[in-house]
Amino acid sequence: MRTFAKGTINGRLTTDPVIRTVADKSVCNLRLAVDGLPSRKTGEKRPSSYFSVVVWGRLAESCRNLVKGQEVYVEGNLQTRTRETDGQASVTYIELNARTINFGNLPRSAMQRAA
């Protein structure tokens, strides 16, 4: 049986997406910020969380018109990558490999530029 970890993220883009080509396939890396929920005990808002998303193929091309601050809903598979740092330590990153993306509302700044 094949196992995988599925993830869902609903957040806002921290930067405009950049699409590049790798081995004749389009790839887009997105960075999403998700607002922290308030603590049940104190009501104090927790800090935001940040997530890396990788989008491939035609789905990556559809990200061309996204803008910083736009709301995005992403579903996909979680994957880990390990990279060696300058020293001998290794760092493990968790990314969401996107399968579906839904584009939400534009930020106010983008709506003002379009008007």
UniProtKB/TrEMBL annotation:
Spell out the InterPro entries in the cross-references.
NA-bd_OB-fold (IPR012340), Primosome_PriB/ssb (IPR000424), ssDNA-bd (IPR011344)
One GO CC term of this entry? nucleoid
> What are the GO MF terms of this UniProt record?
single-stranded DNA binding
CDD domains reported in the protein's UniProt record: SSB_OBF (cd04496)
Pfam families associated with the record: SSB (PF00436)
Keyword tags: DNA-binding
NCBIfam families associated with the record = ssb
Task: Please identify the protein, giving its name as recorded.
Answer: Single-stranded DNA-binding protein
Species whose genome carries this gene = Nitrospira moscoviensis
